[in-house]
């Protein structure tokens, strides 16, 4: 059978019902926009990147590392220029495509300065490095700009490297990074030149392949420093991503010439005591850091693989798509919440959806798409959770409401019985008695029946009033009702007068009534209790009118016994009530009176015959102050809050453990001047640096980390 | 039926008044409360004729009434139940009058009061408080002749109670238990007031107050040449209240 569309959801969707879920989505969106999720997202990114399948070693790159043994053998550090010059000479014999010397040589390290400088002059496929961000280190003097590159790298808020620079505008002109210079030299052999991007003019491009530029809010980043041109670093997933040899290997000829010929050679320090390191958990090694030279190699390899092999680069969605994605998952969470009624159905749905989200995110990363995972999952789970909570809450409320309704209904039924019992039934009893006694004329009967007719009609009106007025009124016979807010003794007086005014047969013989109602403090009674008491008084008086044969006196008193703390309501007469004993004890009035006992503290109900004639009906209860009047709620909660110790909410930022400053770095200098006009003639080939680029901020990242932490707390 | 009989007892009110005027205080102060100037003028002229020596104060609203009573401590308040609360622009309502009446009876339990109203039944609300009020309390239906009004004013000044109009609709006589007790002690056991007071543990003054209430219920009001106590006993026996 085809389901109706409305039945797809178990619950009707109302605007209010969507509120908790929407709130969750908004919450997650705001959290992401304010950068609170950045760290979690970056860590998740690292994890997904690490879990990708293994890739082959990139044999286009050879790392020549000067390791601990080399340094020990040379016996001095820094390595003298002569050794570097000698190493370059040796390598050049095997015709490499390009050599990057990832060792700063602003100042001479004698001996061998002349030899090194002449090597640079002799080989234009030899590229030197400088450091362009504070503290700056200049390249060896006298080199043309094509042979100079920088090896700065940016760090994220958690001090991890996930990005690389391609170019940076400086006061000395536009500079290119080592990785870009090496890739450029290598790709020139394939007639692929560096050029501006087509889709994004400010991005860089080789041939058809554009290197997707990173922006402040790309992916999970929030307001990240996008100085210069940066790309996400797509680490080559392999425990040996590149061939690595030592200086000694080269000099001893232990390296196959094919490893060098037409390859990119990067010379750098690999001795753990002296090398620069980049902390990263994305690269997938156990130490969560890699050497600076290897980091550069990843940068080169990523460009080459993308351009030549079609390997995917890391790309991100446009911000709008990202938030639509998060919204979509949030709505999914709500939908599952709506669709399922049982908890385990919901859990199953949530589990399936979560797994598919994880799978999607992983596959996307493998294809080079970095999509929001954590926020989507959070929006999904939170929206579902809040929706579920509100559903459970509404369900519980519904049940409570239903119960309340039933109680209300029962109350109404009880009230209806009371009204009928204390009204029309009394009239009917009188009529029956008079007919039995045989002293009822047709005229009287007619008028009595008319009265009965009116009384029964009034029952409906009174019930209606009772429903609309709630418990606030007690309805006397006919059209009168009295406000239960009046003091008890006044209420009793009203009830007594009204009831005694009724046309009940045995009231006619009563000549004397003793009436007295002691006042009591209002705090002892609820309005419902007052209502019950009025009902009781009315019923008891009606009983006298019906049953007290030949009564001449009647006593209606409410006495407050201060010593015992009790109030006694007593209704007595001196009539003969012999004939109707059974009626008295089994009537509805009796049942109601017994129920009355339960509604009062220590309520006691008693009926007894008096001698020689008469009947007494008594109800007494203990006066207890209503709980609501003695409740005390502390109003000075603020005082508690003020006494809380003020904790230092801003943790101090420590330097990252394990980060060793590279040996080839000078002590920091004062930051250099700002960007001046860029001379395009310094730019390499066809790539024009975009005019809106600004130099990156200090790459230490400590400022943004502090900001991040403060923002988080 | 019974109420008819009680009215018969006041056939010569003017005569009664002459007798009663004798034991009034010299600096008699009477507060008249009414929001209608015409009614106020009429009442005042009648009263001035009756009590030429008296000082008359007037109040038109509930608030003025409170102030006047507090300031001048009158011997008698002739009170219109339907008055405005604060100023004459407001609609006069019986509930404001009732409220002032409650306060007056609570703060000055011995104050003599005469209440004028067109709706006597309204007072049923405070019947219990009237029953325990120790000063004079008389009710005048505004429809009554001014002669009858003066009689009731006089009764109030004497500290007597006249509230029969209030219970004219009821079938039976209505007593408080302590009053029936006084009746029994006086006429079945033949006790004097002082003895009664000792027996029921109240002051002799309270017993006197009970008597005024009992007489009011029985419709016995002072008449020249008749003994009130004996009159009361006769009526109580007629009604079968005592054996």
Write the layout of secondary structure elements.
The complex is a heterodimer of chains A (713) and B (243).
Chain A: H1 19-33, H2 38-50, E1 58-66, H3 68-74, H4 81-92, E2 98-101, H5 113-122, E3 126-130, E4 148-150, E5 163-170, E6 173-176, H6 178-188, E7 194-196, E8 204-206, E9 209-211, E10 229-232, E11 242-246, H7 247-251, E12 264-269, E13 277-279, E14 289-291, H8 292-309, E15 315-316, H9 319-339, H10 343-366, E16 369-370, H11 374-422, H12 424-437, H13 442-469, E17 473-475, E18 481-483, H14 488-500, E19 512-517, H15 527-547, E20 553-561, E21 566-573, H16 581-586, H17 588-598, E22 604-609, E23 615-622, H18 637-643, H19 702-712
Parallel strand pairs in A: 1-11, 1-12, 2-3, 2-12, 3-4, 15-16, 19-20
Antiparallel strand pairs in A: 5-6, 5-10, 7-8, 8-9, 13-14, 17-18, 20-21, 21-23, 22-23
Helix pairs in contact in A: 1-9, 1-11, 4-5, 6-8, 9-11, 10-11, 11-13, 12-13, 14-15, 15-17
Chain B: H1 2-8, H2 13-20, E1 29-33, H3 37-50, E2 55-59, H4 62-72, E3 76-80, H5 94-107, E4 112-117, H6 127-132, E5 137-141, H7 146-157, E6 161-162, H8 164-167, E7 173-175, H9 177-187, H10 193-200, H11 204-218, H12 228-238
Parallel strand pairs in B: 1-2, 1-3, 3-4, 4-5, 5-6
Helix pairs in contact in B: 2-7, 4-5, 9-11, 10-11
Coiled coil (chain A): 442-469
Region (Disordered) (chain A): 655-713
Biased composition (Pro residues) (chain A): 660-670
Rg over C-alpha atoms of chain B, rounded to the nearest angstrom: 18 Å
Q: Main β-sheet of chain A, in a few words?
A: 6 strands, parallel
Second rung of CATH, namely the architecture of the largest domain in chain B? 3-Layer(aba) Sandwich
For the largest sheet of chain A, list the strands in their spatial order: 4-3-2-12-1-11
Briefly note the structural class of the backbone of chain B: alpha/beta
Q: Could you tell me which chain pair has the largest interface and how many residues each side has? A: A-B, 21 and 19 residues
Gyration radius from CA atoms of chain A, angstroms: 47 Å
Number of strands of chain B: 7
Helix content of chain B: 40-55%
CATH topology of the largest domain in chain B, what is it called?
Rossmann fold
InterPro entries (chain A): CHASE2 (IPR007890)
Organism (chain A): Zarconia navalis LEGE 11467
Protein name (chain A): CHASE2 domain-containing protein
Pfam family, one (chain A): CHASE2
